[in-house]
Design goal:
This protein is of the alpha+beta class and 219 residues long. The chain is built from seven helices and seven strands; from the N terminus they run H-E-E-E-H-E-H-H-E-H-H-E-E-H. The protein has a single domain, classed as Muramoyl-pentapeptide Carboxypeptidase, domain 2. The strands form two sheets. Strands 2-4-5-7-6 form a five-stranded mixed beta sheet, with helices on both faces. A two-stranded antiparallel sheet has the order 1-3. Strand 6 and strand 7 form a beta hairpin. Helix 2 packs across helix 6. It is globular. It starts with 9 loop residues before the first helix and ends in a 15-residue tail after the last helix. Its cofactor is Zn(2+). Its EC number is 3.4.13.22. Pfam families: Peptidase_M15 (PF01427).
């Protein structure tokens, strides 16, 4: 698959889910992993991921060069929040181009925010992250985490050739570590990686996605 597959692609929605029931766990309880607070919500959902995703994040971190760390920005996203993000961004796109068809708006929105019904974050299998030094100082990767295609002039794309050599090198370091740990990247967002969700299953050729939409246990 050489072309970018957006999350709005019918093949993503058609991918079978066989949720294995793996629980969400709080990454903040793992001292080895740095967790940022810029996307923090009141109940801490942002810091949760599926248990095997956390294990794989630690594998990826162990593959980084000495002195570098992963910095987790966001993991699990409740379905209601995902829906709100998608609708708000879609409204922004419609306002910018009132003539755009609903299908076109959905396609454009999906390059940045996943449609709620197939969103990797609501499965607990997706993470938004970057690299930092041991003291927490973020490394330059070309754009801010969560930069939109419009505000970054497309530099948010993982393979964008408009970012500098240092940023490209850092993206390559991140990519090697995350890929080796079993994650796949969403090519329109250098910071977005997932394991076990529908998108991962489609790209990796798995017969089914082990993670479907989930909710946090409140017990």
């Amino acid at each position: 698959m050489t072309d970018i597959i957006l999350l709005s692609d019918h093949r993503v929605a058609a991918t079978r889910v066989a949720d294995n029931g793996e629980p969400l766990v709080d990454t903040r309880r793992t001292a080895a992993l740095r967790v940022d607070t810029r996307k923090a919500d009141e109940d801490g959902s942002y810091a949760h991921v599926r248990a095997d995703v956390l294990r794989r994040l630690l594998v990826a971190q162990g593959a980084l060069p000495p002195g570098l760390r992963l910095l987790l920005v966001e993991g699990f996203r409740p379905p209601g929040l995902q829906r709100r993000y998608f609708e708000e961004y879609s409204a922004t796109l419609r306002a910018a181009d009132p003539a755009a068809s609903p299908a076109r708006v959905r396609e454009l929105a999906s390059a940045y925010i996943s449609p709620p019904e197939v969103a990797p974050h609501v499965s607990g299998g997706a993470v938004d992250l970057t690299l930092c030094a041991e003291d927490g100082t973020e490394l330059p990767l070309g754009t801010e985490v969560n930069a939109t295609p419009e505000e970054s002039a497309g530099a948010c794309r993982t393979a964008a050739d408009t970012v500098g050599a240092v940023a490209r090198a850092h993206r390559a370091v991140l990519g090697r570590a995350m890929t080796a740990a079993g994650f796949v990247n969403y090519p329109t967002e250098w910071w977005h990686w997932s394991y076990g969700d529908r998108y991962w299953a489609l790209l990796s050729g798995a017969p089914a996605a082990p993670y479907g939409p989930t909710e946090r246990s409140r017990t």
